[in-house]
Design a protein that fits this description.
By secondary structure, this protein is mainly α. Helix 2 packs antiparallel against helix 3, helix 14 runs antiparallel to helix 15 and helix 18 runs antiparallel to helix 19. The longest helix is centred in the middle third of the chain and has 25 residues. It is rod-shaped. The N terminus and C terminus are likely disordered.
Length: 504
Amino acid sequence: MEDVIVVSSDSSSNSSNSDMEIDMEPTEMDNSSESIVPKDNATIAEERKKLGNDQYKAQNYQSALKFYAEAISLCPDSATYYANRSACYMMLSNYTNALTDARTAVQLDPSFEKAYVRIAKCCVAMGDIIGAEQAIKKIEELDPQSKSVNTEKQAAQQLRQLEQTIQTNYDSKAYRNVVYYLDTGIKLAPACYRYRLLKAECLAFLGRCDEAVDIAISIIKLDNTSADAIYVRGLCFYYTDNLEKGIKHFELALQLDPDHKKAREMRAKSKALKDMKENGNVLFKSGRYREAQTVYSEALKIDEFNKDINSKLLYNRALVHSKINNLREAVTDCTRVLEINDKYLKALLLRARCYNDLEKFEECCNDYEAALQIQKTPEIKKLLRDAKFALKKSKRKDYYKILGVSRNAGEDEIKKAYRKKALVHHPDRHANSSPEERKEQELKFKEIGEAYAILSDQRKKMRYDSGQDMEELEQADFDPNQMFRHFFQFSGGPGGQSSFGFEF
């Protein structure tokens, strides 16, 4: 920071008594009491300036401001007083007022180099590259050898390059890169509201709305008419699924700046998203699932960066898929929800239910385990127990599947299924096949016999269906040929004969 300019009073021999404060001594012609000559404004102003300088050096900047203001009020045409107060404002990081005073100083004295230096410093701090470059150019005209603004010249060049890089990344929606480069820019230009608000906007796009809100509110406190700050505040409401408040803030930004393109676009986007979301919900509640699915899908195309709303839209669409038995699509949508927010309990529970219906019991158990970590309720604990039981059952042989019958199949249907499959896979039928093929058919023949032995016995079938004592149902010494002979002996062999001697 430049030192305060200290200008001493002129005290030439031609100055009149009214130009300074003096003590009047008695003379031979006047033996009365002391005669006091009043001080003029210039003298008082100079005293105030000196007091301000003392306070400035002591780093009491608020007190210094007061004295400089008094000096200016007494002598409003002194460029030095404005320049000194500008330096004081800079020390308080009040670059707006500092710039105003520095510009006033050069208006009063167009050759005042140090005032131009302060203009350059303030413009750099506020991110005004053009203003900084103009001030630097003027300094170089006044003194081609001047090195007083070398730092500012370098900073202005860096900011110009940074802005080009920032714009390129912003246009390509590389918002993380924008934030990175803006942090560098803010170090060079700490009073640049434009950089801070652009950073806040990108933070909102990235879902870091708490940080974005803090920046927006800090600037609104300094300038409650900032359309950009109000726009960013609305953006934060929008990205946290508060569309109503978001729309109100975008409309307020447009009242302050009718040409605010971003606020206009976001207002339209917010209204479209709000209408689609509400319409989809109405269709879902009325049972018009396929129409609801279409609306939710269209709503998801509006803004890929609105993760909060999109997660809800995806969950709602997953519900629709589950209602129309598109279980795999429901799982896909739930998975996308959980990629956005892994603590989304409803999505976890819905995916677990879909996994259960798809007989993917291990995945089902994993989801219920994760859900239980989020919320330990008796309902979720029971769901997890049931899923584990289903998983245990699924690891047994599925005798219904082996026979090709449903779990509701009756005794006659089970017998017919056994008869059909036993004849297809009987080893004698494959006597001329390769050793590998014969071995495979023997295994299938055995499994068919095991399945029939369990499902044709009501007691064993009941235990199998309930999942109890599953290990005891294993039949290591089971003879499928004996089961086959027994079956056809009592039910009649193929072709209606009671004997077993037949040809395949």
